[in-house]
Specification:
With 123 residues, the chain is mostly helical. It has one domain. It contains five helices and no strands.
Length: 123
């Protein structure tokens, strides 16, 4: 898979995840935070994270369409993914283990791919 395709795939994945958190916050955040996902405050926070990921993904797509580097957007995405990994490790002990592992794997994988892409953009 070439760099352009990988950048686009990462952005689309972020858009899909963000949209899920925005439109179905309880369902999308339950693996991450467990049974509290249905609480009003949890839904607000999930939607906020959804907007974050949606904007980061769209930012990458728009930058590429304009012929600009998506580097800043990718850097922000890597930072967000790192924060998500740390938060699931320290703050979600009440959530189901399998869900926490899945969230850490997805965020960690996206973060690693973002770092790889940033490295290839520098060359």
């Amino acid at each position: 898979m070439d760099e352009q395709t990988r950048v686009r795939a990462l952005a689309i994945g972020r858009i899909v995840a963000g949209t899920a958190l925005l439109l179905a916050p309880t369902l999308a955040s339950k693996p991450w935070i467990g049974g509290v996902a249905g609480a009003s405050g949890a839904r607000v926070l999930a939607r906020g994270l959804g907007i974050r990921d949606l904007v980061l993904g769209v930012g990458v797509i728009v930058a590429r369409q304009r012929g600009e580097s998506p580097k800043g957007w990718l850097q922000a995405g890597v930072a967000a993914d790192a924060i998500d990994c740390v938060s699931v490790g320290v703050g979600a002990h009440h959530a189901p283990l399998l869900g926490r592992l899945a969230v850490a794997a997805v965020a960690g994988g996206a973060g690693v791919e973002g770092v790889r892409l940033l490295g290839s953009l520098d060359h």
